[in-house]
Fold this protein.
Amino acid sequence: MEYSIDFSEPIPKVVQRLTAEHRDFRIKLIKIEDASEVSSEKAIEMLKKLKKPILQHTAEEEARIMRMIQKHLSIQKTGIRRKKSFL
């Protein structure tokens, strides 16, 4: 699986987009739960389709959080603040 993260996207926009993705995942998971009451095979197929987007979403959240932590630790260590970055 190949996936790249756009670290130049402003944080407020990232938060808004990831929040919307959370809502979309919740809706899809509810549909999968409903489908599982009728057909477990159908629910499994739906889960398989949702696997990659959830993994990508999770990887992006983790990468963004780690980038923010590293930036914060770097500032604490050096006491130097760089110009505003895209984080």
User: Anything to note?
Assistant: The chain has one domain: 11-78. The chain has a mean pLDDT of 86. Residues 40-78 form the longest helix (39 residues). The chain is about 75% helix and 0% strand.
